[in-house]
Amino acid sequence: MRRLIEFFNRKLLVTHIYGIPVRIDYRWFIVIGIMAWFVSVAIPDTVIDGGFLKFLLGLLTVIVFFFSIFIHEAAHAFVARKEGIQVLEILLHPFGGLARLRREPDTPRSEFRIAIAGPIASFLISALFFGLWAASNSIGTSVLSPLLFALFLLNLLVAVFNLFPGYPLDGGRVLRAFLWKRGKDLNESTALTGKFGQIIAAALIILGIGLIFISSDFFTPLWTIFVGIFLYDSAAKIVRHATNLENLVVEEVMEFPVSIPPGTTVMQFVDNTLTRYKQTVFPVAENKELYGLMILNDLKEKLPRDKWSETEVQDVMRPVREDYFIPMNSRVTDAIALMHANGIGALGVVDDLGELVGFIDRTRLRKRT
How would you write the chain as a 3-class SS string? Predict the structure, then answer.
């Protein structure tokens, strides 16, 4: 049983789109088979006579629908890249899809643009299938018309449902951007919209249970309940994570600072430090005094390789500013806000004497909390 669970928790790499890996949850294959069967059962014998042909047509319809879900997630990924955020993967799972980002957006505007891109894509796909349905009706193709209409309705449903104002739905992220813009910090906005997500999920579960008693269709109520459970679990994790962050202080999550003396040459830094520590930001310090931050992107963009042996780190580092460090007894939520503000995504941590005692990187912080 344990091996079976581990098997279905695995993900299959399908392809790469502009360097972004596209993966499929193994459980997706079970769901796609079930959905294809339900679609095939709904096809009248007057349209197609033959169970196997019906199943093939149903399978094709479901695959096209999930390709539409992929485009929805690809829209999120495309806008995220435009906003300077790395996309780790696009994942198709039994209840839809997910574009997983390396970090949170830097501004409410960026959050809004990334969140709204998916529903806009689904509305456009829905309009496309509506046009194809109308064209199919005009030429009298009885086989394709009902399936094209179903794809129109399904994509419209995806667009509308995702605009519900509860995280992790896209509408929840739009609401989070609005709250963030109005002055609430990102963590507080996330917790609040996550609770809205739990309320929406509970309503779906109740609706699904009610439909069992009033509907002759067994699949729709059951699917509604499963979607509600999945959404509730995702929202609960988000709320729990946000609540945990509220109670943490920087000292509890900081890492040991791998610092570089300011007089070190760039070549020495690359050969002796960068090969051992896979970071993109390093504090520049000597005798626990923080001088600045060394950013790998700055190094790549500003300094040719043939200058590395004659250039010191202090010549290419970003000199220390107030938003480059934080006291060790500060809240983690304050550190996250400061990392968003400084545009680097990292902070040196100092004690009461102003000495460097730790380091926080936004990417690794997300993995640890």
Answer: CHHHHHHHCCEEEEEEECCEEEEEECHHHHHHHHHHHHHHHHCCCCCCCCHHHHHHHHHHHHHHHHHHHHHHHHHHHHHHHHCCCCEEEEEEECCEEEEEECCCCCCHHHHHHHHHHHHHHHHHHHHHHHHHHHHHHHHCCCCHHHHHHHHHHHHHHHHHHHCCCCCCCHHHHHHHHHHHHCCCCHHHHHHHHHHHHHHHHHHHHHHHHHHHHHCCCCHHHHHHHHHHHHHHHHHHHHHHHHHHHHHCEHHHHCECCCCECCCCEHHHHHHHHHCCCCCCEEEEEECCEEEEEEEHHHHHHHCCHHHHHHCEHHHHCEECCHHHEEECCCEHHHHHHHHHHHCCCEEEEECCCCCEEEEEEHHHHHHHC
